[in-house]
Each structure stands twice: as C-alpha cells, then as structure tokens.
C-alpha cells in the first residue's frame, strides 16, 4: 500500500505548505517558514492546533501576541483571527478539524 503524495504549495512569500495526511475529520500539515516570512492574518471555521517543530515564531491570536519556541503548541478556535511571523527559520506542524478542503486544491 502506498501513501498519497501531496504537492507543495506556496501560500505566502517564504512559506511552503505540504499536506502530510488527511481524512474528512482531520488534516495534518507542515508549514516551513524562512526567517521573516509571515502567515497573514486570517480566520477559518476549522479548529487548528500548531506545534513548533523548529524555529521561533510570534503568533497573533484574537489580538494577542504569543511567542512560541521549539516544542511549544497553541490551539486556535474556529473563526478566530490569527497569523504568525517567523523570527527564526523553522517548521510548524498544524492539525485542522475538520479537514481544510481548500488545501487539497493547490
């Protein structure tokens, strides 16, 4: 049995997104950031958790700034405005529930 391979997407300058696994209820996604790259402020109905695999990030969630280092994680409720700034090159592993169907149509 072979696992599906999902193509990389480039949602913002200096950001590479790759779906790692998914089903209708859950999606796991890797986001790689160059230093200084930003995930622009946005919101979506999905609950999101983010885990800092490497690097250093400043997250903005509902107007609050939160500094995250390797090993830190954060939950973002659905429909809450959020974004991040990469302070040191790194990778985030995000989980979304339900699946982000918009990520499947690169």
Automatic annotation (TrEMBL):
Molecular-function GO terms, alphabetical: dioxygenase activity
Segments forming domain Cupin type-2: 31-88
Keyword Cell membrane: no
Keyword Oxidoreductase: yes
Domain of life: Bacteria
Keyword annotations: Dioxygenase, Oxidoreductase
InterPro entries named in the record: Bacilysin_H2HPP_isomerase (IPR052535), Cupin_2 (IPR013096), KdgF (IPR025499), RmlC-like_jellyroll (IPR014710), RmlC_Cupin_sf (IPR011051)
Record's protein name: Quercetin dioxygenase-like cupin family protein
Organism: Rhizobium rhizoryzae
């Amino acid at each position: 049995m072979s696992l599906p391979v999902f193509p990389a997407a480039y949602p913002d300058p200096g950001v590479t997104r790759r779906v790692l696994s998914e089903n209708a209820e859950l999606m796991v996604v890797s986001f790689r950031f160059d230093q200084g790259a930003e995930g622009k402020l946005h919101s979506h109905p999905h609950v999101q958790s983010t885990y800092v695999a490497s690097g250093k990030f400043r997250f903005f969630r509902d107007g609050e700034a939160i500094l995250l280092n390797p090993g830190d994680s954060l939950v973002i409720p659905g429909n809450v405005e959020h974004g991040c700034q990469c302070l040191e090159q790194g990778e985030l592993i995000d989980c979304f529930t339900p699946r982000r169907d918009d990520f499947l149509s690169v």
